[in-house]
Amino acid sequence: MSSIKKAEKAWPDLTRLLYPSGVAVIGASIKPNSISGQPLAHMIAGRYEGKLFPVNPSRTEVQGLAAYRDVREIPGPVDAAVIAVPAIHVPEALEQCGEAGIPYAVVLTSGFIDLGNEAGAALEKRLRESIAKSGVRVVGPNCVGVMNLTNRAYLAFGGGVSDKSLRPGPMAIISQSGGFGQSMMTFANLHGVGCNYVVSCGNETDLHLFDFAHEFLDREEVKLLAIYMESSVEGAHIRALGQHALRVNKPILILKVGNNDVSRRAASSHTGRITADYALFRTAFREGGYIEVNDLDELADVARLVIAGKYPKGRRVGVLTGSGGWGVMMAEQCEKNGLVLPQISETSKENLLKLSSPFASLGNPIDQMASYSEQHKMLEIILDDPSFDQYMVRSVAGPKTGEWAEKFIETSAKTDKPVIVLWASVPTRDAEIRESIESAGHLCSNYAGRAARAVARFTDFAIKRHRFDNPPDCGFSRLVPERSLELGNGRGALNEHQSKQCLAQYGIPVTREIVLDLGQIEALGECPISFPVAVKVVSCDIGHKTEAGVVKLGIETLNDLKREAKVVRDSALRYLPTAHIEGIAIQEMVSGIEVILGAVNDVNFGPYVMLGLGGVYAELLNDVTHRFSPVSVGEAMEMIAEIRGGEILKGYRGDSPADISALAEAIHKLSCLIVDHGNQIAEIEINPLFVLPKGAGVVAADALIVRSQEEH
Amino acid sequence: MSSIKKAEKAWPDLTRLLYPSGVAVIGASIKPNSISGQPLAHMIAGRYEGKLFPVNPSRTEVQGLAAYRDVREIPGPVDAAVIAVPAIHVPEALEQCGEAGIPYAVVLTSGFIDLGNEAGAALEKRLRESIAKSGVRVVGPNCVGVMNLTNRAYLAFGGGVSDKSLRPGPMAIISQSGGFGQSMMTFANLHGVGCNYVVSCGNETDLHLFDFAHEFLDREEVKLLAIYMESSVEGAHIRALGQHALRVNKPILILKVGNNDVSRRAASSHTGRITADYALFRTAFREGGYIEVNDLDELADVARLVIAGKYPKGRRVGVLTGSGGWGVMMAEQCEKNGLVLPQISETSKENLLKLSSPFASLGNPIDQMASYSEQHKMLEIILDDPSFDQYMVRSVAGPKTGEWAEKFIETSAKTDKPVIVLWASVPTRDAEIRESIESAGHLCSNYAGRAARAVARFTDFAIKRHRFDNPPDCGFSRLVPERSLELGNGRGALNEHQSKQCLAQYGIPVTREIVLDLGQIEALGECPISFPVAVKVVSCDIGHKTEAGVVKLGIETLNDLKREAKVVRDSALRYLPTAHIEGIAIQEMVSGIEVILGAVNDVNFGPYVMLGLGGVYAELLNDVTHRFSPVSVGEAMEMIAEIRGGEILKGYRGDSPADISALAEAIHKLSCLIVDHGNQIAEIEINPLFVLPKGAGVVAADALIVRSQEEH
Fold first, then answer.
1. Which residues pair with A61 in a beta bridge?
2. Least confident among A142-156, A286-300, A419-433
3. What's the gap between Cα B488 and its chain centre?
4. What's the CA gap between A157 and A36, in Å, rounded?
5. Radius of gyration of chain A (CA)
6. What is the DSSP letter of B202?
7. Tens digit of each residue's pLDDT (9 = 90 or more) over A58-85
8. Which residues of A touch B294 (CB under 8 A)?
9. What are the strands, taking DSSP E only, across B252-358?
10. 8 Å CB contact of B160 and A322
11. Chain B residues in contact with A295 (beta carbon < 8 A)
């Protein structure tokens, strides 16, 4: 919908939109429940303190306020206009705003490009022209508007706006669906997470999700952001925003939908085909300051942890419970979500045994039957234990709950580790006690599964944040100098031999091989490569070599070599009579663990690398991982650890371990190669790359480099 | 904790325990908040209508009731006793109950085998003796008791019992954790799901989870069961209960924990090693009338669907929404949970277009902008559409919500398909409208993810139920007659050749092969099997043939055959000098897609089969599936479809499809083999089984049969 902006653009200052001293409502209706009546009605009900100017040429008064015929007649200063006139009149209204010097407009009206037809497209074009002409910055059209909950500047309509229980708070919401955005606000509020700003982006004809996101991240009163994203072609912006979120230490809780819609361009390599758009979104979310959530309940739970403000240093959770059953539940849900449950330290154990209370289990979960008077002593001992980064504590229930809560809050305040409460009381009881625990900054959850999921996701962010400040390998260091590869003038694929030569120049080992023509092979007195060897037709025109029957492996004698060289050449010409055959390669045979290593210069996200184990299984089970380039050797090691098939490289079931370091170096070098030649290379694939036993390195047995289709 | 019972046992009738005309409380305390005071206090507060008899030798009155010195002195009829005296006195109290003719006792006291020490074990033994001697049937010890919410016979203690908001309903709960069981009750009640019976099993010294489960399934007032299970060695009971649940059409919502605790016996085959206990529990849950849930929120959601009583005929969901964003969310969450979203029929489309309302999308989700007056007309059209088995409808919000709800209920009542509501109103508003929708039998959920998960799981049950009444292949038909294989007198493994002969007798094709001794091979004038062939040492003593170096593949000439035969024989003797070598097999070489097919006679669950794709990946990624034996050909086809690697068999990326039918037959036959020889065979593994192209069958290239270790 909107043009792609450069990631380094200057973001607009939206202060006057969020804090207008006066608001004009163009098309304001006398019916407070109608869409065009709601903004005024909500602001009047909310006691918005700025000036309100209804514009309605056929009324002198609207909802008790003096109405103006024309926005240009309004005397007072107006910082923002809400436009709720029929679509056809919107461009004119905008231009009038421009003439009146109003800097911002929120267009609620739909019926532009959202119609999906020609009439809508024409009107959208007209709208763009008005925006350009007027100089007004526009939210929408086709949106439910912008809400500031701190001053009740509700330039908006919708069921959520009238919610009387709304309380402002530190979260800002940006949504590409108006209805869903208000649901996010409503449910967050219901779970005690207040918002300050809520924006519905609409068609994003002018102001875009990223304009709002940068504005909010840079506002001191915003502590976290929640975004509902339907689709985006702005990978570079997503990545830049993620880095900014880490920089300012404000997580972005992102709910990304539209992930089933796999519409990759036809790709020459497996890498491109295996990689769904969503994999790149997830890669961007993982890399940056995002926390991906799947539903509104999860969003609220994670938000509470963020707001509580205690960041765990790691994934080690201590579980305290008085119910064995709940202990098992909590422990399993933690482990299911990638948290770990170490045993308590010997010191803690000794200290606990000094108490008079019995323990059903002194492991982890710690199943205690402590008397009420000793509960906090026990908690104190566990909170001091350096074995744990954070805690899940099941509360007590019954008449002593209040007393317990008071001591719990007091004790937990002494640690900077997060302490999450699993709430044991009957849900209809003790609401005020629960609230006191929540106000003290503890996520208080009824459900072990939900709590564990939220804790795990918040922990991921905390670890990323820590790393951002403390880069693991003292920044990025290159193992290979930048080179300018000779890629020729053509487009499309290089042949295998050329592709491998490029890799070799970047220090990625390739098979020893020699390319001859058939006559030269027939004249050979001995094989230039020790047997066994492979022969392959070298031709840019034949992408799928196995399918074309132009590869023979495991040749042991000179006679076989000569015979098979002819066979593959004939196969090539049968397969594609017009193929230009550049020669026949004689290659050494290599064996090892096969991996597939790819790199793509994605049109939205930029260059990335992909790693998977070889064979059809990796693809079928989607056991692949991605990182944007360049990738340090350390990050490459993480990629190897991430794929489930990576176990095989470590030496599975007694096999000797493979050369994981060499693989990591190859990933790093390939990532440098694609970055250095970003706009010249579309895709690179090494398939297979053989990983040899530890110390013996890696060898690329086949490779493909596809040049970009565009002019440079 | 308890002995394994036969699945076909007669279950006790627990009516007098659940509906006692009189209850004795032995050790009743005057303190109503103490454990031994609570049962009386709860029953007095709950106005239990039966007679209450406190037994306390040092009091004449307890909590306002006349107390007895001894249970044998109670005049009135007593159907159940609650025992809350110190552990050491429990056996005596039980015996006194026996003398008094009391048929049931609930022992709350802990300190028996649950202590995990010798003193506890001794007391447990003493308790067993008392149970046998007295003839009293016992719940517990170490439990929070038994609750009947319909007559308030609360033979129990705990925070949940005092919940004033409890309302009886159609769900019965059985829990192996007392605390968690009460949480299940509390949260179900909070979400509008009432319970009639809640049982905490405790140590299960006498009455066991399965005694309660069968009692409840057979009681008319129980419509569904919820079970919290920590661990169980009673696989046969779990399976039998699952069948019974299907028979009586009452789902068992099961929350199974303790699944990370993988403690398989040392297994000779991959099959045994790959198969964690939990895989067998899941297999039993899938086979029977269970719905596995992961947390209390999910439990409540599924329970509401069960109680609503409309069973979907399939997985096809129609999604109706007025918010595009919510439509995407609902659709994605449905698909994520295995539900499908077909397009609406052409007829429905035509009928919808006759309405005056515009539609943002006429696909599925159906994104409508209908006027309020047309909402129900639209709904009517969609509900009639045979493309859908069930629906998710997002409600409207705002002032017309009540009106909408009324018409929604009226319209939805006309279909027997489930209609689930995603609730759009602000959660703090319109509670009574929501309640009216829920009372009309609709799950009304705030969260798309939770709703979709619950719907998917309930649909699984509905489909199982339907199948139970309409078996897909007219019952089970065997393709192979029962045979009595000659397994010899020994224990341990048969050699590969013997194992394959057994398979062949069950109609599972094996490689052509001949076993000779080294001298015979050296004297061969030509190879009895066409080249290429494999040679393998045949010896029961060598399990891991590849590791021992006793296999050579791809032999092409008679000379090589003779040389390699000697090589493998020598390797065998080097590997294990004491090995008894039964011969050297010359086998045909086969190629195809490798699968691993196993069968195990599990000590708890009985015989099962396992299928996975060959190679290390299936194991690493746990891409295997299990079924209890015998397995019909139809079920075997389902197994093949279930493994993700099964795509390869269908012909992946243009490969020709493999002989899936032959594989299914082999699975079926193997399942018959293990059933027919259940107590003689411990494990069977075919690894690899080659699946040839369609029509060409399967061939077992290696096989292992391990006989049972026990006497028969």
1. A66
2. A419-433
3. 36
4. 8
5. 32
6. T
7. 999 999 999 999 999 999 899 999 999 9
8. 333, 449
9. 252-256, 290-292, 317-321
10. no
11. 329, 333, 447-450
- Residue B50: the pLDDT is 92
Cross-chain residue pair B179–A322, CB shorter than 8 Å = yes
ipTM: 0.85
Cβ-defined contact of B429 to A329 (cutoff 8 Å):
no
Q: What is the pLDDT of residues A6-20, one digit of tens each?
A: 344 689 999 999 999
Across the interface, whether the CB atoms of B178 and A294 are under 8 A apart is answered: no
In angstroms, the CA B305 to CA B293 distance is 13
- Most A CBs within 10 Å: which of B180, B617, B642, as the mutation test of the A interface? B617
Contact at CB, B335 and A260, closer than 8 angstroms? yes
Chain B residues within an 8 Å CB radius of A427: 186-187, 190
- Rounded CA-CA distance B255/A105 in Å is 53
The answer to whether B231 contacts chain A (CB < 8 Å) is no
Task: Enter the pTM of the model.
Answer: 0.89
Helix (H) or strand (E) holding A598: strand A593-602
Q: What are the residues whose beta carbons fall under 8 Å from the beta carbon of A357, sequence distance 6 or more? A: A368, A369, A370, A371, A374, A378
Question: How far A272 CA sits from the closest chain B CA (Å)?
Answer: 15
**Residue A15 CB partners (closer than 8 Å, separation 6+):** none
B613 contacts in chain A (CB < 8 Å): 617
B652/A398 touch (CB, cutoff 8 Å), yes or no: no
What is the rounded CA–CA span in Å between residue A171 and residue A183?
14
Residue A384 has pLDDT above 70, yes or no: yes
Q: How many helices (H) and strands (E) does chain B have?
A: 24, 31
Contact B329 A260 (CB under 8 A): no
Q: How far apart are CA B321 and CA B391, in angstroms?
A: 11
Number of C-beta neighbours around residue A18 at 10 A? 25
**Could you tell me if A391 and A361 are in contact, meaning their C-beta atoms sit under 8 angstroms apart?**
no
CB B700 within 8 A of CB B511: yes
Q: Which residue of B has its CA nearest to A261?
A: B332
d(Cα B516, Cα B87) in Å, to the nearest integer?
Answer: 69
Please give the Cα distance from B136 to B82 (Å, whole number). Answer: 12
| Tokens found for residue B153 | 């016979």
DSSP state at residue B119:
H
CB contact under 8 A, B326 and A177: yes
Of A157, A48, A168, A54, residue with least CA distance to A110? A157
Among all residues of chain B, which has the CA nearest to that of A117?
B360
- Measured between CB atoms, does A448 come within 8 Å of chain B? yes
- Give CA angle at A364 (A362, A367), nearest 5°: 55
Q: Where are the alpha helices (DSSP H) in A263-385?
A: 270-274, 277-287, 296-308, 324-336, 346-354, 372-384
Min CA distance, A399 vs chain B (Å)?
9
The three-state secondary structure class of A215 is helix
Strand-pair category, A195-200 with A145-148: antiparallel
Q: Give the model confidence (pLDDT) of B370-403 as tens digits.
A: 666 778 888 999 999 999 999 999 998 877 889 9
Q: Is the peptide bond before B528 cis (omega within 30 degrees of 0)?
A: no
Count of Cβ atoms closer than 10 Å to residue B414 Cβ? 10
Amino acid A268: pLDDT: 47
Please answer yes or no on whether B295 and A447 come within 8 Å at the CB atom. yes
